[in-house]
Predict the 3D structure of the following.
Amino acid sequence: MHKKTTVALAGKLASVGVDIFERLLIIPIFISAVGSELYADWAVLYAFSMMFGVLDLGLVQYFSNLLLDKSKRGSRAEYWETLARARKIYGFLFVFNIAAVLLVCYFGAGNVLRANSLTAGAASWIFAYLAIAVAANIPRSLLLDNYRVAGDYEKVVVSVTILKVVRLSFLVVSVGYYRSLELAAFSYTFITVAVGIIGITIMQRSARYPAIFRSPRFSGSQVIYREDVIKSFSFFVRQCGRLGSQQLPLVILGLFGVGSIVLVQFIVVRALTGVVRQLITQLSDAIGMGVSEAWYTGDRGSIGSTVKRSCEILSCISGGLLMVLTLYVPDILSLWLEKDASVDYVLFAILSSAVMLSVPSLPCLSVLHFTNHSEVLAKIFSVKILVLLSTLPLFVFLFSSRGAAASVLLVEGVLGSYYIIKSACKIIDLNSVDIMKSAAIYMILGAAVIIMGNFVVDELPVGGSRLFMSAWLIVRFAVLAAVLASAVLLIAKLNPNFRRSGAS
């Protein structure tokens, strides 16, 4: 078990690393190879295609949990019946998604989404390829579900990481060497489908895993299918909220026809601040899994202190990282964008504020998720979706990219964070005001540590070639990361309450 845990952790860290690499380094690669205008078109098409993930109607996550539940309960007959039902529904969802993609393309997706430089035909093909990759993730999820059921979670992590690495490699080659967005989109889809087929084929040859395609057929009534759809609604709402917050701002900016420079700057600034949020989210999920074990085993006394101290430490980390970005965002943009390197500090401030305000809510969100409070999450995400849909078009119309950022700040940083913290604190018996106050204090502390550490690295040489500047930034970031990590470890060591909560 120790070996499995180690492999899973290593795979998780690798997966996070790939995500961060894709978020940060794919942007300058694309811009250097095809220019800002074409990259802006790609970003809008990619965002629109990713939103088709909501067409799984929340059923994929619902059946993933249901299969695991049936397996743990030891009911073999019910498990095979659920697997057969899932296979049938997944097949329907896959066909439904493909039909939706073709329908959108038929009615002129390329004409609507073409922002700057792509032809309507090229835009339609790119969108179709990327959206088909999203649809292909539906049947591939059966592969991952079987791994989870067998207790091989580390294989889920490793297989997903392999897919990300191979897919990213083909993207870099397609764009960096061949300078073709169509080839990049095609390779993205091809790798997604190929890895899924290879993985399922290997699994079917192993006696260890349930035979996905040889399981009994399900001949139940339509009432059961309707019940599945009803029960999956909360997962559907959460999916809409997550994808809406991530992708809808780019789609709306593209539809309103903002210039490529404005669009690229929004993408870059959000990518930078998004790295902080992504890292904190991954750490929060790890905390959430630990909390869930305590929750289901009845050991709930330590949950409150664990969550509170986790919020404080994660706030300290995020405050430090956001301060690093604040200090060095001009240098980063000058390396990434060259001639288009001007910084919109208002945009950066708004998106940074959205991350700062949302950080304390991320451990709380993981608590709600891993303790299966789906109804509470559905209500919160319903509010977020409604506010996002009502504010985003208006704000973009009035204030362009800053308006999109303001809508994200309102939905993610203010409303979402408030309701998530309040709901979680009610369940685990904490004071939400205390959580937010302590998070603010620790965030300021993290930022102060970086400001002081920056006096040390300020003595490092400046100037030179682009390669030298890149190395200079890496060295500075490494030193500041070491300073921040030392401060966090010191805080944890000096805080006995945190030590006790962490140990539990």
Observations:
- The chain has two domains: 1-231, 250-504.
